[in-house]
């Protein structure tokens, strides 16, 4: 098929604005997938994705569409992940297209991710086609959506298509608009073969399967390919397209979207955003926009039952094969035993990996408090990256600590303004400007330390705004801040799992809270045990574990010796899971409980 008859596009939207439902409708309308197969949403294949309704991995699909102008077009649809943690993946999927359908839920209007995604699409020079979706809803407010399109996104309202994925309204019109408005594949006249890797998948038989968009030239089995970011060479074994199943093809040519299998066996060797060229006649310039993806949020993950260590390690290895953005290395903790330090793109990414370990690999795990990556300038002027509070050098040896910040766009109803301002202040943020979205909503652009939004920011934003608030962010710069390492001591010994890096002004409150919680959860001890929070050896908060004399055999009146022995054995067994702090033994599950109640 001629390249002039190919269109590559994607659908971008705020979470839940109906992207998957509409994609399915397009597949059905073009007879790509029979209707009965579509009973369940077709593009989101992972269980967890379905449950959370969040698209994590992007799956492209090739459709054939006989247009009203008499020509049949090849339409490649890219499904993009909607969440900020995956914004680099979104931007690479967009880079593989020439156009984007921008969905707006007619009952919700423009939201934080609508704006963020629209800007990503403009940034890639895509033709944006606005679609006001779910118009079948009784609460649809078309006038509002159309005026928001013009005011917030500066897209002329007359370009909008009114649609409903669920009721099947506007589907033909959308397909026609893709054909008419989205330009044919760009950069196809470049002299050398260049293909963009926009995702990859690990298959236990075939190794890494790269999802690619060929911009110029062609690639076929037997070709020697070259990855431009690192110069690695490999042989192409198979290429094909998604229908949506993988279907072998003889070659992928300029404008095509499909998959490529080579003898690369590890996903970390073929990175999203990289450019594939041919080893014999290599291109000299990569396709634009490649970045190394770096984990931003770290935490320790430990098996609740220490005998699950190997099982956990194997589970992580398998997850990593499919997700080069997830990193892990072994570490050990006094309180929690042997486990792993893990790095993630963001909080959602962290939650998803933890959930998959529990669910797909059946290992019960506990995570320590998440931490960001700090830049620590030591006395000799050297810069160190610290992702685990335990590794922060002594206060005496630190000249300066810098923390990562984010630039956030927060959409809220007017009436929540006061409470949200207070929340942002509490989280050490600053409001850079305020824009009115419509009569009822405003958008705040603010700068916040990443560390402060890790735990409960989004939950509190949602609860203050009764679910109507939404946030999107991008990473900002590193800034110097008055940060200190706070340690928790039990019987004067530090408990590594509770060490944290906190702002000096917040240390005391946080220390008191943590000591109180530990005092409540740690079982009564034979003698007085102090729980203290300290900064650089100086105690800032203190609490005590309850005292109690406990005789496990006390309940056994009478002289049943076998029953007594049983109880003593049971106690001995219990001791194995105890952690020793000086003269004090504390069961590991007490720590686990404290970490869980966070
Ligand atoms: P994410 O993958 O989480 O970004 O969600 P999504 O944008 O893919 O949305 P999805 O298609 O999963 O739809 C979200 C919810 O809206 C589901 O409960 C759908 O049934 C519903 N929905 C989708 N399209 C329509 C529509 O046109 N009309 C109505 N009334 N509901 C719709």
UniProtKB/TrEMBL annotation:
Residues 4-186 form the Tr-type G domain. It is a peripheral membrane protein. Its main location: membrane. InterPro entries: EF-4 (IPR006297), EFG_III/V (IPR035647), EFG_V-like (IPR000640), EFTu-like_2 (IPR004161), LepA_C_sf (IPR038363), LepA_CTD (IPR013842), LepA_IV (IPR035654), P-loop_NTPase (IPR027417). It is an enzyme of class 3 (hydrolase). Keywords: Cell membrane, Elongation factor, GTP-binding, Hydrolase, Membrane, Nucleotide-binding, Protein biosynthesis. GO terms for molecular function: GTP binding; GTPase activity; ribosome binding; translation elongation factor activity. It catalyses: GTP + H2O = GDP + phosphate + H(+). PANTHER family: TRANSLATION FACTOR GUF1 HOMOLOG, CHLOROPLASTIC (PTHR43512:SF4), TRANSLATION FACTOR GUF1-RELATED (PTHR43512). This is Elongation factor 4. It comes from Cephaloticoccus primus.
């Amino acid at each position: 098929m001629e390249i002039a008859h190919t269109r590559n596009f994607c659908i971008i939207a705020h979470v839940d604005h109906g992207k998957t439902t509409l994609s399915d409708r397009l597949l059905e309308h073009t007879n790509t997938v029979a209707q009965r197969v579509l009973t369940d949403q077709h593009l989101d294949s992972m269980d967890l994705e379905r449950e959370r309704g969040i698209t994590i991995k992007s799956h492209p699909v090739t459709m054939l569409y006989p247009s009203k102008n008499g020509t049949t077009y090849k339409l490649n649809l890219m499904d993009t992940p909607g969440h900020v943690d995956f914004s680099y993946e979104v931007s690479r999927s967009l880079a593989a297209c020439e156009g984007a359908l921008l969905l707006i839920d007619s009952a919700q209007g423009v939201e934080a991710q609508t704006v963020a995604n629209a800007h990503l699409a403009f940034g890639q020079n895509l033709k944006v086609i606005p679609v006001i979706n779910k118009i079948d809803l009784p609460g649809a407010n078309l006038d509002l959506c159309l005026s928001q399109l013009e005011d917030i996104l500066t897209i002329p309202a007359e370009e909008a298509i009114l649609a409903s994925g669920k009721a099947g309204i506007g589907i033909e019109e959308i397909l026609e608009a893709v054909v008419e408005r989205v330009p044919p594949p760009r950069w196809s006249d470049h002299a050398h073969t260049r293909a963009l890797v926009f995702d990859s998948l690990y298959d236990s038989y075939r190794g890494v399967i790269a999802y690619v968009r060929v911009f110029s030239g062609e690639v076929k089995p037997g070709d020697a390919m070259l990855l431009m970011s690192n110069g690695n060479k490999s042989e192409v074994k198979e290429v094909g397209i998604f229908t949506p199943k993988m279907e072998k093809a003889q070659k992928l040519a300029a404008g095509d979207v499909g998959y490529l299998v080579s003898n690369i066996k590890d996903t970390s060797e073929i990175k999203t955003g990289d450019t594939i060229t041919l080893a014999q006649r290599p291109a000299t310039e990569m396709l634009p926009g490649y970045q190394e993806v770096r984990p931003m949020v770290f935490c320790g993950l430990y098996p609740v039952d220490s005998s699950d260590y190997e099982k956990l390690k194997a589970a992580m290895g398998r997850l990593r094969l499919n997700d080069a953005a997830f990193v892990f290395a072994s570490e050990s903790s006094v309180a929690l035993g042997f486990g792993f330090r893990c790095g993630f793109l963001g909080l959602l990414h962290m939650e998803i990996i933890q959930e998959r370990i529990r669910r797909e690999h059946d290992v019960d795990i506990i995570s320590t408090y998440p931490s960001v990556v700090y830049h620590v300038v030591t006395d000799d002027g050297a810069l160190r990256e610290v992702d685990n509070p335990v590794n922060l050098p002594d206060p005496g040896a630190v000249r300066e600590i810098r923390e990562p910040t984010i630039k956030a766009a927060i959409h809220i109803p007017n009436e929540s303004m006061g409470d949200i301002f207070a929340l942002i202040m509490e989280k050490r943020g600053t409001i850079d400007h305020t824009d009115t979205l419509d009569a009822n909503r405003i958008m705040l652009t603010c700068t916040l330390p990443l560390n402060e939004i890790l735990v409960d920011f989004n939950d509190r934003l949602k609860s203050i705004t009764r679910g109507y608030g939404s946030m999107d962010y991008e990473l900002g710069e590193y800034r110097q801040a008055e940060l200190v390492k706070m340690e928790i001591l039990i019987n004067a010994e530090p408990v590594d799992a509770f060490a944290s890096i906190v702002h000096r002004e917040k240390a005391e409150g946080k220390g008191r809270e943590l000591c109180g919680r530990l005092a409540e959860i740690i079982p009564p001890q034979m003698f007085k045990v102090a729980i203290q929070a300290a900064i650089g050896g100086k105690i800032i908060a203190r609490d005590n574990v309850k005292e109690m004399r406990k005789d496990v055999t006390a309940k056994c009146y009478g002289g049943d010796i076998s029953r007594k022995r049983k109880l003593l054995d049971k106690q001995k067994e219990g001791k194995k899971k105890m952690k020793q702090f000086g003269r004090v033994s504390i069961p590991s599950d007490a720590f686990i409980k404290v970490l869980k109640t966070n």
